[in-house]
Amino acid sequence: AAGHVNPTTGGGIPGAAKSAHWAVKRAVEAISEGDTSESALWSYNRDVMTDFGKKFAGIDLYNVWGTAHDVEELTDVVTAVPGQQLADALGRGTGSSMGLGLKLKTAVETFGHRETLGELYRVQRKAAELRDHYDRYPASPEAFEAWKEVRDGIMDDVYAITGADPKY
Q1: Torsion-angle region of 48 (φ positive above 0: left; ψ -120 to 50: alpha; else: beta)
Q2: Average pLDDT of 38-49?
Q3: What gap in Å lies between CA 93 and CA 3, rounded to an integer?
């Protein structure tokens, strides 16, 4: 569970605490039932992946997208899009409503970055799809390979959208 904490920032402590709780709970159950096999402990994986694992998996797609662009381009895009709308779109997959004036200003300021913003939109859709897929994390190790194939397909789509080199 301690592996969930970022040693540089200390981020991830809540996830590590949840993870430790789930690990102890599953271990006690497995020992009490006399079965410490992978199958008996598998629900720990499901707990992690359907909770904070899906969040991190979705966020990672934005990291993949970012590696396909240089810092100057990303800075231009981020400064051209109103901050609250960008945060809402990335965090929840929805945009805040924008008045006509703000829409026009944003359209002018993002001129020349339509392709990059289009990629970002498609990545955002894939992030939502990936989080939904993590909600279907298998209840047993036997179903993992089929689940992983779908996950890998989503990742392949993201690499195709962004042109980034595969990380894994």
Answers
A1: alpha
A2: 95
A3: 29
